[in-house]
Structures are given as C-alpha cells and as structure tokens.
Request: fold
Amino acid sequence: MKKLNRDSVTGISALLVHAAKIDEIYSEHEKDLVKDFIKSYLKDDNPDEILNKAEEIENNSNQLLNYTNIIKKNSMDIKKDIVEHLWKVIISDNTVDQYESNLMRRICGLIYFPDKECAEIKLKLINSK
Reply:
C-alpha cells in the first residue's frame, strides 16, 4: 500500500505542517507526528531533513492546497492514511477549532475523500486517545 516518492511525501508533509500550524501552535509533538508520517513512507530517509524542507515549503507557499493534487492521484487507501495523519496532527492538542475543521473539509473535497469516512476517522482517533 505505501507508495509515495520523496517529493510527494515532502509535499504532503508540508500540508501536515500547515494543518499543525493553523491553530497557531506548532508543538514538538506535532513535529513528531509529521515525522511519523514521513517514516511510514520513507524508511531509509532522514525525517528531520524532509520535515525541514516541508516547513520551508509551508512557509513560502500560499498555494499549499496544490499538494492535494498529489494525494488525489493516489489510491483510496493512501488517501485514507493521509487523512488519518492529518487528523492525528490536528487533534494532538485535544481541540479542533473551526479553521482546522474547515481545512479538513476543503482537503477532503479536493482529494475526493468522502466526508462520512473523514468524520469516522476523526471519531476513531478521538475515542482512542
């Protein structure tokens, strides 16, 4: 299932960084969650290096949602995995604000991921905390 190249993982990581920063708190725990995502796709790469590049992309890009095009081309399994990682980052601080919810709705719409399934993933993660 896990098939994304380094550029795709870096771009999607930038989206995860964006999701982490949207509430204006970017914690070490959130950085670790992004690194977990990186490690789940790129076993032999340096997650810190990719995270730094992703942060750079996120800082310089107001076109962040362009990275949804990478996700859109992938299988439903990969989309589901990415949505799950996004929610992990968002709920890591135990709150979900309207901006975070709105971001997830926009991303899911852009990658053709069902709202119902997105909500189920969110609930599952909240309940497993």
User: Anything to note?
Assistant: The chain is about 70% helix and 0% strand. The CA atoms of residues 94 and 126 lie 8 Å apart.
